[in-house]
């Protein structure tokens, strides 16, 4: 990478972009990055750690998409499972009678 110095005028060489699709994209990225380096000199020459990027770096969209889908499947599975001993909110739980105790029911007629 060439070192650029702040100037009143910049001369940008014309380019011929050719080759395979990947080579063309790489040449375009390098050209854009050169222009962004000039923009950096003009806008933020006093901030040496600042850097403009021409294109975002390769993202991890495939693992991220797989993770999101797996979490969605897990959520559906967790929401779809019914508890084994569900009770209605208003009903009190019925307790079985104690051993040896007889329960009598009185019916009024």
Question: How would you portray this structure in words?
Answer:
The protein is an all-alpha fold and 109 residues long. The chain has a domain at 12-58. It has helices at 21-44, 61-80.
Question: How can the largest sheet be summarized?
Answer: none
Taking all Cα atoms into account, the compactness measure Rg is: 36 Å
Secondary-structure-based class equals mainly alpha
Distance between the amino and carboxyl termini: 103 Å
Binned, the helix content reads 40-55%
Poorly predicted runs: none
H-E string: HH
Number of helices: 2
Q: How much of the residues is beta strand, in percent?
A: under 5%
| Total E-strand runs | 0
* Shape label: rod-shaped
Q: Please, what is the average pLDDT?
A: 76
What keywords describe this structure?
rod-shaped, 109 residues, 0% strand
Concise synopsis of the structure shown:
This protein has helices at 21-44, 61-80. The protein has 109 residues and is an all-alpha fold.
Topology:
Blueprint: H1 21-44, H2 61-80
């Amino acid at each position: 990478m060439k070192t650029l110095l702040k100037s009143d005028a910049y001369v940008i060489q014309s380019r011929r972009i050719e080759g395979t699709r990947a080579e063309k994209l790489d040449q375009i990225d390098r050209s854009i990055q050169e222009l962004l380096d000039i923009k950096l000199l003009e806008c933020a020459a006093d901030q040496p750690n600042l850097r403009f990027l021409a294109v975002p770096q390769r993202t991890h969209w495939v693992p991220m998409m797989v993770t999101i889908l797996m979490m969605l499947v897990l959520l559906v599975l967790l929401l779809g499972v019914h508890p084994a001993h569900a009770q209605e909110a208003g009903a009190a739980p019925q307790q079985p009678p104690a051993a040896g105790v007889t329960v009598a029911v009185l019916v009024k007629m």
